[in-house]
Amino acid sequence: MDLTDLQKDLRRAAREFAEGEFREKARYFDEIEDFDFSLHKKACECGFVGTFIKEEYGGHGLGFFEHALITEEFWRVDPGCGQAILSCTFGAEMIQEYGTETQKKTYLPPLVKGEAIMGFGITEPDAGSDVTSVKTKGERRGDKFVINGSKMFITNGCVANYILVFCLTEMEEKDPHRRYSVILVETDRKGFEAQKIKGKMGIRASDTAELRFNDVEVPVSNLIGRQGYGFYQLMDFFNRTRLHVAAQGVGVAQGALEMAIAHVKKRRAFGKTLSEFQGVQFKLAEMATKIEAARGLYWRAAYLLDHGKIDPALISMAKWFGGEVAVFVTNEALQLHGGYGYIAEYDIQRFYRDAKIVEIYEGTKEVEKAIIARELLKRVF
Ligand SMILES: Cc1cc2nc3c(=O)[nH]c(=O)nc-3n(C[C@H](O)[C@H](O)[C@H](O)COP(=O)(O)OP(=O)(O)OC[C@H]3O[C@@H](n4cnc5c(N)ncnc54)[C@H](O)[C@@H]3O)c2cc1C
Description:
Layout: H1 5-21, H2 26-32, H3 38-45, H4 64-77, H5 79-86, H6 92-98, H7 101-107, H8 109-113, E1 118-121, E2 137-141, E3 144-155, E4 162-168, E5 180-186, E6 192-196, E7 208-219, E8 223-224, H9 230-266, E9 268-269, E10 272-273, H10 278-306, H11 312-336, H12 347-355, H13 365-378
Parallel strand pairs: 1-4
Antiparallel strand pairs: 2-3, 3-7, 4-5, 5-8, 6-7, 9-10
Bound molecules: flavin-adenine dinucleotide.
């Protein structure tokens, strides 16, 4: 399997953009735990944001595969900046799939132009992997929903213009999968509060926040999809977004491998460069092979998705293995830097910290394995 010429060009352009626009600034953003959103705007102007959004909604009419390729290239240069830019459409996949025409025409075009940022609040202080424990309520009163509750670890919580909120709307429903709905909340609504979470281990350029909803009122027309079917919509949504996370894992691993190769070619020990030792060469060979395998998984899953075939097991394999490879490769790459790897001045330390998130968000590695096993057990071989 190979990329089309257009995909190759896009990948090259994404790499050049990342190298030119944020490689030099990445360490600073990590230190200050903040980001310069003029870079996001620039990435939008260059066509890197929202490639999966259809042309009629202001997008470029490409696919999830293209979004994943750009993600890999951005994360190869810096995961924090990559996440700060590309997460700005997180939730658009849900609007595009389940929103009304009016919702798609209202909320999607500004994301592509860099005029709006969005997020998606699912996790709560007491509900993460088990989304059926979510307690934030969206109570229907006439032509409004009144939202009360809190959300935890929400990407773009402090910078978003609108946020999708996974809410309990069917309080009396016995089936836990039929209790939830997805509601869009504009962040300038009365009763909405966001507090930045500082001190993250990695992807520190990306905003993460705790959200509070105190009697936030939104019109019923802000419901995305079908009332009571939010759980099913969410599972379907993750089949798209987990691919991007798989690509993040490959990107951070590829960046770390390249740093390791540059270092071992220069660094000398016992009268030779490190790259001359077979033990070092074997490490590099293992790292590169695992990256290629992880890349192959996400490419195939993304190709199938763009051709109308959703394979939840394959997507979960790509996401789990992408995280595993990210953590393995950044660890080995840091090891090859010796003591220098432990010092913040060397980018490999940041990549080592950044990689871990791939195993945690949008389904921990354990959740991914549970999905893979569930799908396997359903199959007849
Ligand atoms: C930087 C960052 C950004 C994030 N962005 C967002 C966002 O934008 N929106 C959003 O909604 N959330 C976001 N999250 C939250 C993230 O998705 C959750 O942290 C993640 O889903 C895990 O939930 P939890 O933290 O509650 O862990 P828990 O669910 O408490 O899990 C803790 C551990 O137990 C394991 N575990 C749980 N259940 C089982 C089981 N049945 N079998 C085996 N092991 C199990 C898990 O795998 C994990 O290792 C973000 C998190 C971070 C750190």
